[in-house]
């Protein structure tokens, strides 16, 4: 009679501690290499998103001025209800687009609100040039406020300028990144 043979215990399959440590170290190195480029990519995306939002609202303001044959104003706004004071050149917090029915350049209850923006996230600043407090489009589509420039400065990478000429046409200009 044969005696039952002793069965070998199942061999465990898996990773050794040393293999896990090496794999984790390689993963950490790859992450360290990828994060700076992803941060730059995110910053560029946020800058481009803010640029699109502003240019879309500028185009909307111009087209509404032509459409309704009325003055349309786009001004910076901190609270989304009133235009910022003329000393505030920062547009990061947001802006208003409205038909300026009473002609005073400020949003009031008699004016017709066209659009409100809550501003841009991830942007260091959006500043107008020294003379720019608002963009004012006449019924012809031309700017009553003259040529204006907004500079969008992201947290890292190149800044971008939005230039609106007297005729109301929009042009973009990108500066090289400042390291």
TrEMBL record:
The UniProt record lists the keyword ATP-binding: no
Annotated localization: Cell inner membrane
Source taxon at top rank: Bacteria
Residue stretches spanning the membrane: 12-35
Entry keyword annotation includes Acetylation: no
Pfam family, one: GspH
Keywords of this entry: Cell inner membrane, Cell membrane, Membrane, Methylation, Transmembrane, Transmembrane helix
Topology class, membrane: Single-pass membrane protein
Gene3D superfamilies linked to this entry: minor pseudopilin epsh domain
InterPro entries assigned: N_methyl_site, Pilin-like, T2SS_GspH
Domain General secretion pathway GspH intervals: 50-168
Membership in a protein family: Belongs to the GSP H family.
Protein name from the UniProt record: Type II secretion system protein H
């Amino acid at each position: 009679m044969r005696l039952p043979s002793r069965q070998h215990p199942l061999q465990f399959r898996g990773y050794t501690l040393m293999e896990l440590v090496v794999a984790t170290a390689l993963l950490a190195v790859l992450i360290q290499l990828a994060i700076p480029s992803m941060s730059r990519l995110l910053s560029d995306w946020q800058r481009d998103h803010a640029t699109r939002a502003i240019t879309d609202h500028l185009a909307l303001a111009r087209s509404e001025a032509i459409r309704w044959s009325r003055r349309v104003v786009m001004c910076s706004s901190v609270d989304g209800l009133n235009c910022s004071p003329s000393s505030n050149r920062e547009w990061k917090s947001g802006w208003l687009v409205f038909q300026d029915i009473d002609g005073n350049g400020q949003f009031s209850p008699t004016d017709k609100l066209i659009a409100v923006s809550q501003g841009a996230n991830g942007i260091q600043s959006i500043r107008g040039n020294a003379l720019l407090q608002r963009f004012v489009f006449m019924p012809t589509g031309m700017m009553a406020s003259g040529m204006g420039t907004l500079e969008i400065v992201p947290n890292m990478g190149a800044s971008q300028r939005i230039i609106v000429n007297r005729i109301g046409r929009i042009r973009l200009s990108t500066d090289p990144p400042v390291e």
